[in-house]
Amino acid sequence: MSFDWQSNELPANASPYKDELLHIEFRSPSHVTFLMQAFWDGGHSLRVRFSPTEVGQWTCRISSSIKRLDNQESNFNVADSGLPGFVAVANLRHWWTTNKQPHLWLSAEVPLFDVDQAVFESWLDARKHDGFTHIRGTILTVSAANKPVGADSLPNLVYFHTLDDRLLAAAARGFTLDLLLADDKFSNAGGFGSWDQRDGLVRYLVARYGGLNVTWQGVEHYEDTPDGRALLHDLNASLQKYDSYRHPRSSDARTSSSPLIADGWMNYII
Predict the structure, then answer these.
(1) For the chain, what is the mean pLDDT?
(2) How distant, in Å, are the alpha carbons of 145, 153, 239 from that of 150?
(3) In the list 144, 173, 189, 206, which could disulfide-bond 242, CB 3.0-4.6 Å?
């Protein structure tokens, strides 16, 4: 869902990236509620991504600091797509989907920015043919020509539009997306900054990709990341705050993420 604002409609000094200008409460036929934040997509545009998880009539209610959009409520109907739904932890050793069917996790890893879109989609089709069910990649990475955050501390929208093309192509083919929040380059370069910067960045990532069928996989090689355990605690506190779907959470590791179990945020082991 897309929303545009006029020049005089934002509160004074409001930032479309840093401030929560709009969110939508989606209520399912069984009265389960999902709170989805809007994300800034450049210019005067906000977008909300959401995937219904039940068949039937849903209600959505907008809350916004843009007065023209605030308190709008509407209904929509969801037909049976025949799709199994999102992946979730069934128990310590097994996975299932929203429709309570068993799920086989078979993941192929890909650097999301190393090839062009046509080659990437051809690669996806080959993995689908091979029987893979998940695609694993890193959201935040840094190269000389490609940075997710600009010098102004705002998202690089060219970067995220390219990432959208990759992830939405995988999602359209039915893959679950195993998403590392950041690789070594981003983490070790101090890309997460202060707590406010980390929280704002996670909020943005969840708003942009949390409406898809994803698993969160922390940071690359958390053992090698400066203050990696404390960083993961903060990142996952934000994930738990903003991710209404409660997607599975863990972290990449050189050996095992199992030492992080005691910290209370992780619900599966890599």
Answers:
(1) 94
(2) 12, 5, 23
(3) 206
